[in-house]
Design a protein that fits this description.
By secondary structure, the chain is an alpha/beta fold. The chain folds into two domains: 206 residues, Alpha-Beta Barrel (TIM Barrel), CATH 3.20.20.10; 128 residues, Lyase, Ornithine Decarboxylase, Chain A, domain 1. It contains twelve helices and 19 strands. Helix 7 packs parallel to helix 8 and helix 11 packs across helix 12. The radius of gyration is 23 Å and the shape is elongated. The structure holds pyridoxal-5'-phosphate. Pyridoxal-5'-phosphate binds next to loops. Its EC number is 5.1.1.1.
Amino acid sequence: MPRPITATIHPAALRHNLERVRHAVPDAKLWAVVKANAYGHGIENVFEALRAADGFAMLDLAEAQQVRSLGWRGPILLLEGVFEPRDLEVCSRLGLWHAVHCDEQIDWLAAHKTQVGHRVFLKMNSGMNRLGFTPERYRSAYARLNALPQVDEISFMTHFSDADVDHGLDRQLAVFHATTQDLPGERSISNSAATLLRGDAAEVRCDWVRPGIVLYGSSPDFPRHDMAGWQLQPSMTLSSRIIGVQMLGAGDTVGYGSRFRAEGPLRMGVVACGYADGYPRHCDTGTPVLVDGVRTRTLGRVSMDMMAVDLTPVPQAGMGSEVTLWGRAAGGAVLPIDEVAAAAGTLGYELMCAVAPRVAKVVEGEGR
Ligand SMILES: *Cc1c(COP(=O)(O)O)cnc(C)c1O
């Protein structure tokens, strides 16, 4: 028997979360963001459930090729554009739309020999200061692109740095619209946070929204809203089993560094899950976890392949009992990934993406 740890992907939850975004912005088109192998879920595991999107967006050409080979004929957008000139050949061949964020990418397009007119998303650096043309240089980049025979259609995009806080996107929003005001073309500016928090405003949702994290059931502005607050469902469950039980007495310690010391008798379970599975080592004693669907806490340090949990609230639990590290327990109880992430000082994004290759991924409903 393999180690009992599994990441279960829930297609019904992905469908539900996509529908939830649709409901928030019914008249916008929707890119399902599947970068980083669909936020760690596996593109092949989410594709069918997210087919109701209007397009798929990612960074890697290999991921774009994968979505095409799964049978997707609709729009695909490379959010960082191409990384070298010959990537443009793949774009021509597969009909990929691509972001253009720097002069070099325009140079490469100008030198690209193709019969296929490219659809590009001209990226503005409206304040994030990562990729994109500054507002001052944006219109000259547009003019250059617009003069290229290789370019068929130009759309406009930017990305928010602070969409999860009140008024965090106002400045970038104003700069983006002021700069693109009279330019013809579609616009895409909103990530999950902007879509859920401000998508009721037409100037925020624009033509295309770009939700990522919300599709996977993590709240983009946790803890202000949690998963239930946004009516989301977890799309991934990380689960394992108890593979050992210890009875601690007063003064006994648990794990490396003896970070937990029992004050009195305590029944403790050892779980087949550690940081080598992607569970964050930063989670200290007290991180929430479900055993047989009952909420309890971790004890001591997470080690490479194991961690410990307090069995006090679940006296019937023992060898082989189900442990839910995040997601949905067999009985239906839910532990939001955001709560575990908060205990580790990080975000649900990082936890999903960090699930290790040694953890088997199973799609619910497809069996093992
Ligand atoms: C990752 C990404 C998104 C999605 O962001 P979420 O916060 O996961 O919704 C949208 N747009 C761009 C350019 C991205 O890189």
